[in-house]
Design brief:
Layout (H helix, E strand, L loop, with lengths): L15 H9 L1 H23 L5 H37 L4 H5 L10 H5 L7 H8 L6 H12 L6 H19 L6 H6 L14 H33 L5 H14 L14 H11 L1
Helix pairs in contact: 1-2, 2-3, 2-10, 3-6, 3-8, 3-10, 3-11, 8-10, 10-11, 11-12
């Protein structure tokens, strides 16, 4: 059996910055990954057009766009799981909620996992045990049970869920709408129609998902920092720096080519004043 190369084995530039952002600032990770995917297919389209096979080049281009679309929605799902895991790994404020999470009771012994917080990613184990995160109500249910906050607003849920449904069609239906897909898309696309994903649609999806991600990360960050200052903070930067810094970075949103900031005492003081 032959397996794909890993990123650490592949030649060329390794985007270690994205890897760091996924763990420390998941919203920033999604921003960068989505932008990369929007730009990826058009990058190759220019090269496909150097020959005379315009129709063939266009078909290849749409296939690349479809693959990029699936990857973008996967990154959106991974972002929510990483944000959930990041909060669990950064603080024990929510351990009681997590232990009582009904969806986890028969899947993993949460107390056993939490006991090994410093040895492994307890948050990653727990988030992974919650299955797929491909519906707004699932994301909200998991965050509400653990942290008493719903990241995705009702005004954003409908479009987000339809984008996820289209991802399902592309990934599992070879891009052809089935009867159930049409029903879940509220009849906007008839059963039997084949989808054509192009750059315009990638950019539309990026915009919708980025808005939901940015707003959702901000809601979660506000809640966990408010809880930190009301339940855990000593009022001393020296004593609170490590835990605060981890929680603060989870809510930071930087652009694709920007580095994550160093968290300072000013960030601590400003956040405490804003959330008082």
């Amino acid at each position: 059996m032959k397996y794909p190369r890993t990123a650490s084995e592949a030649a060329g530039r390794m985007d270690l910055r994205n890897r760091e952002k996924l763990e420390r600032s998941p919203g920033s990770y999604f921003r960068g990954r989505a932008r990369e995917l929007v730009l990826a297919a058009p990058y190759f389209r220019d090269r496909l057009r150097t020959n005379s096979y315009g129709g063939t080049a266009t078909a290849h281009f749409h296939n690349l766009c479809a693959a990029s679309y699936v990857a973008m929605l996967s990154a959106f799902e991974v972002m929510w799981k990483a944000l959930f895991a990041g909060v669990v790994n950064a603080t024990d404020l929510y351990d009681e909620n997590i232990v009582d999470h009904s969806r986890l009771r028969d899947v993993v012994t949460t107390e056993g996992v939490l006991a090994h917080r410093d040895e492994a990613s307890a948050g990653g184990v727990i988030a992974g045990s919650l299955g797929t995160w491909q519906r707004s109500d699932t994301v909200n249910e998991n965050f509400k049970a653990a942290f008493k906050v719903e990241p995705i607003a009702k005004s954003e849920a409908s479009s987000t869920d339809q984008l996820w449904q289209i991802r399902h069609v592309v990934a599992h239906g070879s891009g052809v709408i089935g009867a159930l897909d049409s029903y879940r898309l509220k009849g906007a696309i008839a059963s039997g129609e084949a989808l054509v994903i192009d750059r315009d649609y990638l950019e539309f999806a990026e915009g919708q998902l980025k808005r939901a991600a940015d707003n959702g990360v901000a809601r979660v960050a506000a809640k966990i920092l408010k809880d930190f200052f009301s339940q855990r903070s000593t009022g001393s930067w020296a004593e609170d720096a490590e835990e605060f810094s981890s929680l603060f970075l989870l809510g930071v949103l930087v652009g694709p080519r920007q580095e994550l900031p160093d968290v300072s005492e000013d960030d601590y003081d400003n956040s405490r004043a804003d959330l008082a």
